[in-house]
Amino acid sequence: MNHSDVNQDKKVQWLEQLVGRDLLDKMLCSFSKSTGLKAILVDNKGNTLISTDHAIKDCDFCQMIKSDSNGAKKCQRSYARACIEASKYGEPYIFRCHAGLIMWAAPILLDGYVGSIICGQVLMWEPEDYFLEEIEEMVKGLHIDIAAVKWSASQLEIMSSDKVQAAADLLFVVANQVMQSGMTVLEQRREIAAQQARLAEEIQARKRAEVAMSTIESRTNRINSLEKEQELRTMVRNGEKRAAERLLEKILVDIFAKNSNHLDTLKTRVMELVVIISRAAVDGGAELSEVLQLNAIFYQELHDIPSSDELCLWTKKMLESYMSYLESNKNQKNLQAIQKAAEYIRNNYRNKLTIDDIAQAVYLSPCYVSRIFKQGLGCTLMEYLTQVRVEEAKTMLKNPKYNVMQVAEESGFEDPGYFTRVFKKLEGVTPSRFKQHAL
Description:
The structure is a single chain. By secondary structure, this protein is α+β, with helices and mostly antiparallel strands. It has three domains: 3-180, Beta-Lactamase, CATH 3.30.450; 210-331, no CATH class; 349-438, Orthogonal Bundle (Arc Repressor Mutant, subunit A), CATH 1.10.10. 71% of the residues lie in helices and 7% in strands. It has a five-stranded antiparallel beta sheet, with helices on both faces. Helix 7 runs parallel beside helix 9, helix 8 packs parallel to helix 10 (263-283) and helix 12 (308-348) crosses helix 14 (366-377). Pfam families: HTH_18, PocR. This is Response regulator containing CheY-like receiver domain and AraC-type DNA-binding domain.
């Protein structure tokens, strides 16, 4: 393995530690399956770190280009340039690759790491003769079948500028989710070190103190401990990360101060905390089967811990794991809900749709789905529905068999007058004028 391969493996491993390979792969595959567009994760050198080949393959055009080593290198350089441009502006970057296809890159900027999620392999216009001649010039020098390449170019999907922008925006949502997950883990690692030092200092102070416990005091302390544990359960269930960490620190101080010389007793008490926290995670919306898998891992790790100091730090990390999982699970479910809502609109735009209809289709409340859709795509559900209807209307207007009245009805607009107003607002011309120029 050469030096470049080693560095690439380290980048993948670093991202996996921060975000998780399964989550990265699941997010890219969810995007690809919902949009029909292949997505890959690349570094700032254009190297592909994670690909969705197992879900969606490259188009025939790209496969032929990449079959030549020089063509593959040019693709890599295109990716590297797009990655740099996207990171420069911190927003989706739409570009033409070296072979002439339209693609877009969503930047990932994480603690000095620069990468991008890249997607596309489409055209934004009908491939005319001059374009095919341009492609022939672009791929000159590659050992590939030029005629086959030009034919495959003519078969590429054609997307409107609005759809390209919408897909780029949705990809940006995915990239932001990756960055948010990674930053959460980085922040947790930094806090663990600081909190470990504070916790160790307070434990030592408790050890030096002479504590005389009477039966009544012991009973009172036990009641207080149960109240703290119940409060911890509520905080975890509600996703109150900072408050839960502070309360766990207090609980650990109580436990370790009383049982510092009895490792088995400490492990038993910590085991009780694992049960409390894991049940709270399930109450908070985590999948029971996945929580049980985490529990099995934690029980084995707990058994192998050799000292009380390591046990204290491990307990803190255990809480971090559950809280991070709850947060990631919530964000992933939101992304899936946005994708399902968008897909439902695209499949039912001809019908009279309401926000309640869309919310019912994704099993969420109307208020909640409206909020996450706006946050995710930057437009409301009804604005997105209107965009989809207008895009369908534009396609139908190009067909001479339909008049404006028919187009309005078939694309989901009940009132032709309203259709005309909306169409002109979005496209700058009336449907009639658009049809005249399109024919």
